[in-house]
């Protein structure tokens, strides 16, 4: 531990693909279902541990044939299909760190990440299903790689998923997955990895524009996802476990792929999402496969409440034994609904707090051992020294708000920001000045502890939004808006939203000749979708002549947050440079 850089199990050798697959083949689990996949148009596929092992080894050999070596980075931009998990495990098997980019991100966002990580190869699909529509993925990859924008990429591997018309540079850069896998040997011993060898890079939004590549290494991450999955979900040998996240997010990495498979569990992967045309699809999956453990996000629960309890009530959900929530704090009303309607008042709920950076769950009840309170993530996982502190690093009194912090390293923690150790130090370890050489990890979330020591997480304290459980940097959205010729300046804030938790609201000033209009508002929303992805689409664009700033030129987002939420502007406005700007904004509101 050379603060803030930690190493775990130094000198040990390990391979996470071996721990997720090979070690189960000498047990009865060899023929147990490892991965159950339910496709969006109703197709499905089940892979046993032996079958999954075979597919992973074959694909690992394909990667080797294309020149991928230990240490090379591989980009994965995939829908929720078994090949996404196979690709991750194959990369881990040969020691090539993967960087998975969520399939909902735009070509521009994909390009930035591939450039930063210097990817040698990209794995994608022709397209994927999202809510009744086909999303073109290969086309986005082509756009990202256009004009030699990512010179490090030598090959693109494409899974045929939707069968749509797809441009392929065959004989050159592009290859069909199924063509290359034909006749390839299924013998591929797992590469021995050092404990601290990089396993993957996963990008997450920061408060400054450029997304951060969070680096996770092999042994600590393997151990931490293994033990958190086992204890928090009270995993039993016969359980069918379903986490509804996308593999493009850390929750999918840790709690669809690595944690469950390392434990020899049966994990479900679902391509679809609840939608108006099929509001009961989640409950169908639970009924069809007899799901015992269900782990989803508060934003999904709020959507279910809106759709009505007639949908879950029409299905047999009696197989459920444990419910979990992840991604953002859950309000007590949604918690109670989840427990009653989905859990039939018999399932404990594990409300889990953690982040991309922490690798695994940090604050959570242990089912049956820790009494729960609706809306509280309860207590730190064994070995985690969490605290609520002020900006000096002092513990704040009970029931007073402060900053959520961790006082001691843990095995699953991120090791650095890819290519930028200084940013790692600055972002996470220097917000709260180290005292006597003791560094404190700053999570960027506000929290309080009650008289029982239970943690109540309040949400982000920095310029990061939480939309439907996904992190978005305000700077990213602002930069996207400002790149449009009509926009002179933009400030983005979150507004409380019943369904998404937060909705993106953008305050925009226009360049000279442009006029505010409904058309321009629509155009700007679409522009943000093109630059970042649909997840970042502003719910509202407010045109204004000027933005409220401090005398040093900082935009006062706090005031804009009040205005967006329709609240009276409160707190100190003495640093405001021009009071008339605020008065005008009030009138416009």
Please write out the topology.
Blueprint: E1 13-14, H1 16-20, E2 33-38, E3 44-48, H2 49-65, E4 74-77, H3 82-94, E5 98-100, H4 107-117, E6 121-125, E7 127-130, E8 133-136, H5 138-145, E9 155-159, E10 174-176, H6 177-181, E11 193-194, E12 198-204, E13 212-217, H7 218-232, E14 240-243, H8 250-262, E15 266-270, H9 281-289, E16 293-296, H10 298-307, H11 310-313, E17 322-325, H12 332-342, E18 349-351, E19 386-389, E20 402-406, E21 416-417, H13 421-429, E22 441-449, E23 455-460, E24 464-467, E25 470-473, H14 474-482, E26 487-497, E27 501-510, H15 518-531, E28 540-543, H16 557-564, H17 579-588
Keywords:
seven-stranded mixed sheet, GMP Synthetase, Chain A, domain 3, five-stranded parallel sheet, 28 strands, 589 residues, single chain, alpha/beta, Rossmann fold, Luciferase, domain 3
What can you see in these coordinates?
Helices cover 29% and strands 23% of the residues. The radius of gyration is 24 Å and the shape is globular. The termini are far apart. The strands form eight sheets. A seven-stranded mixed sheet has the order 3-2-15-14-16-17-18, with helices on both faces. A hairpin with a 2-residue loop joins strand 24 and strand 25 (470-473). With 589 residues, it is an alpha/beta fold. The chain has three domains: 13-273, ANL, N-terminal domain (Rossmann fold, 3-Layer(aba) Sandwich); 386-458, Luciferase, Domain 3 (Luciferase, domain 3, Roll); 464-588, GMP Synthetase, Chain A, domain 3 (2-Layer Sandwich), CATH 3.30.300.30.
């Amino acid at each position: 531990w050379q603060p803030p850089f930690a190493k775990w199990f130094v000198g040990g050798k390990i391979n996470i693909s071996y721990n997720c697959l090979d070690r189960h083949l000498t047990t009865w689990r060899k023929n147990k279902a490892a991965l159950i996949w339910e496709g969006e148009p109703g197709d499905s596929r089940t892979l046993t541990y032996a079958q999954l092992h075979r597919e992973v080894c074959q694909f690992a050999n394909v990667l080797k044939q294309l020149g991928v070596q230990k240490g090379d980075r591989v980009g994965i931009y995939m829908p929720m299909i078994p090949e996404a998990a196979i690709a991750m495990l194959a990369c881990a098997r040969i020691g090539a760190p993967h960087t998975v980019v969520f399939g909902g991100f735009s070509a521009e966002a994909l390009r930035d990440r591939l450039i930063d990580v210097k990817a040698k190869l990209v794995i994608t699909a022709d397209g994927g299903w999202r809510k009744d529509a086909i999303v073109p993925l290969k086309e986005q990859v082509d756009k990202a790689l256009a004009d030699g924008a990512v010179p490090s990429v030598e090959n693109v591997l494409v899974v045929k998923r939707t069968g749509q018309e797809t441009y392929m540079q065959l004989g050159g850069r592009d290859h069909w997955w199924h063509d290359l896998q034909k006749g390839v040997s299924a013998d591929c011993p797992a590469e021995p990895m050092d404990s601290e060898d990089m396993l993957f890079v996963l990008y997450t939004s920061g408060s400054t524009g450029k997304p951060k590549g969070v680096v996770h290494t092999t042994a600590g991450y393997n151990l931490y996802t293994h033990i958190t999955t086992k204890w928090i979900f009270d995993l039993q040998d016969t359980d069918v476990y379903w986490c509804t996240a996308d593999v493009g997010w850390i929750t999918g990495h840790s709690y669809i792929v690595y944690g469950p498979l390392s434990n020899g569990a049966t994990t479900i992967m679902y391509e679809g999402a609840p939608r108006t045309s099929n509001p009961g699809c989640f409950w169908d999956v639970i009924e069809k496969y007899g799901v015992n453990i269900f782990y989803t996000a508060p934003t999904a629960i709020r959507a279910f409440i809106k759709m009505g309890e007639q949908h879950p009530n029409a299905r047999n959900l009696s197989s459920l034994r444990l419910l979990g929530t992840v991604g953002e704090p859950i309000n007590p009303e949604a918690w109670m609904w989840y427990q009653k309607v989905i859990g039939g008042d018999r399932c404990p709920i594990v409300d889990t707090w953690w982040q991309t950076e922490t690798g695994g769950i940090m604050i959570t009840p242990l089912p049956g051992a820790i009494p729960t309170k609706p809306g509280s993530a309860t207590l730190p996982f064994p070995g985690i020294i969490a605290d609520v502190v002020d900006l000096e690093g002092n513990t704040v009194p009970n029931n007073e708000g402060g900053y959520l912090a961790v006082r001691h390293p843990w095995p699953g923690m991120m090791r650095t920001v890819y290519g930028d150790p200084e940013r790692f130090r600055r972002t996470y370890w220097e917000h709260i000045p180290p005292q006597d050489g003791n560094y404190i990890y700053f999570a960027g979330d506000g929290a309080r502890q009650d008289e029982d020591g239970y943690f109540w997480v309040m949400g982000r304290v920095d310029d990061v939004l939480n939309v439907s459980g996904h992190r978005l940097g305000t700077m990213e959205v602002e930069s996207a808006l400002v790149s449009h010729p009509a926009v002179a300046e933009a400030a983005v804030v979150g507004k409380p939203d019943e369904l998404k938790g937060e909705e993106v609201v953008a305050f925009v000033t226009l360049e000279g000749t442009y006029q505010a209009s409904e058309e321009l508002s629509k155009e700007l929303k679409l522009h943000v979708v093109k630059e970042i992805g649909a997840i970042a689409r502003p719910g509202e664009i407010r045109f204004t002549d000027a933005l409220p700033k401090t005398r040093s030129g900082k935009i006062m987002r706090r005031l804009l947050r009040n205005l967006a939420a329709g609240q009276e502007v409160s707190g100190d406005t003495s640093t405001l440079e021009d009071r008339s700007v605020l008065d005008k904004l009030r009138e416009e509101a």
